[in-house]
Amino acid sequence: MNEMSQSTAAFFDLDGTLFNGYVWRALRRHHEARRFKLPTLYGYLLSHIALWPLKNAGLVSEEAFYRAWGENMAWLVRDVRVERAQAIWEWVTDHEILPNLRPEMRAALARHRAEGRHVALLSGTFQPLLEVVAARVGADGAVGTPLARRDGRYVGKITPPLGVGAGKAERLRGYLAGPGRGIDLSESFLYTDAIADAPVLEMVGHPVAVYPDARLAALAAERGWPVIGTITKERE
């Protein structure tokens, strides 16, 4: 990604925000359709679905819940060659993500581009997948979570921090020191759906809650932040 010349930016979360869905579900559909690493897939799902009742009971924090899902999702490409994984990222993008972009958010992305802002995706999603999505939607940058690799293969772990909560804020600061150098956050926008992203929402001058979970909806009402859409059931 090239360094930007604009002074303001618009950052978009992926799952539940730009994309009306979840990457873990998209990867599940890929693996099941291709009968790829099914024991690993089902082991991952069973061990992490068990966390839902703990989160809902308040025994596991929202951030810890999403961190476990996001970090361990790297199991799904353990021992996969980087070149082979590229085909997975493209399949997931073309078959699952692009057909399920929220129309109003794609319009918002296009509007910010037309107004001359730097547009970047900011997500806990794996960096190589996020880069494919960014290229497809015409974003200028992608700020995701790198996957650890060795000898041309993914090892089944992320390179910390995961881009969730405080980790997402750290990733954004790193982006501002590199490709996003010169961005004025006080005049920039950030769109996201989850209370876990409160640390990055607080960093920008124009935070926007998109189909927010209940706690983010309450925070947005308290702070007077714009809200796009409503969630009517428990977030998955």
Can you describe what's shown?
The protein has 236 residues and is an alpha/beta fold. It has a single domain (9-228), classed as Rossmann fold (3-Layer(aba) Sandwich). Helices cover 44% and strands 17% of the residues. It is built from 10 helices and 8 strands. The strands form 2 sheets. Strands 3-2-1-6-7-8 form a 6-stranded parallel beta sheet, with helices on both faces. A two-stranded antiparallel ribbon has the order 4-5. The longest helix is centred in the middle third of the chain and has 16 residues, at 82-97. The protein is globular.
State the gist of this model.
The protein has 236 residues and is of the alpha/beta class. The protein has helices spanning 23-34, 38-49, 51-56, 62-72, 82-97, 103-114, 127-137, 166-176, 198-201, 214-223, and strands at 9-12, 118-126, 141-145, 147-150, 153-158, 189-192, 206-210, 227-228. Helices cover 44% and strands 17% of the residues.
